[in-house]
Amino acid sequence: MSEIHVRLADWQKDNADLRRIRETVFVAEQAVPPELEWDAEDAEAVHFLALEGDYPVGTARLLADGHIGRVSVLKDWRGLNVGVALIQAVIEEAEQRGLKQQMLSAQVHATAFYEKLGFAIVSGEYLEAGIPHVDMVRNSA
Prior knowledge:
Blueprint: E1 4-9, H1 15-29, H2 34-37, H3 41-44, E2 46-52, E3 55-62, E4 67-73, H4 82-96, E5 101-107, H5 111-116, E6 120-121, E7 126-128, E8 131-139
Parallel strand pairs: 4-5
Antiparallel strand pairs: 1-2, 2-3, 3-4, 5-8, 6-8, 7-8
Pfam family, one: Acetyltransf_10
Protein name: GNAT family N-acetyltransferase
GO molecular function: acyltransferase activity
């Protein structure tokens, strides 16, 4: 396996790759309705692509208020630290932008993953797109 690297993505230029990954993970695997997956915030968000060599295998986005979302890694690359690389890149970008607090809505099964990266659960469980979630927050030093 080649080295995984993460780069900033351009919503227009990288749109096909961003959509392919999110549609595979959220719409196809998790049955999130397409109308819930795509929103107006995509055009304003900072997007990230995780790549193995030149092949995009994961994505995430950062909103101007510090919300991290749409974190998705293709099935064959899960468990290979792609998600860790993605979240670390998003946190670094957030901090460079002066966003001292990062927030996300985590699927309950993924909370331990986010806790290892410094996030803490700050809400009770709730359903989003029919999937149990909790709100999590990370404060920069």
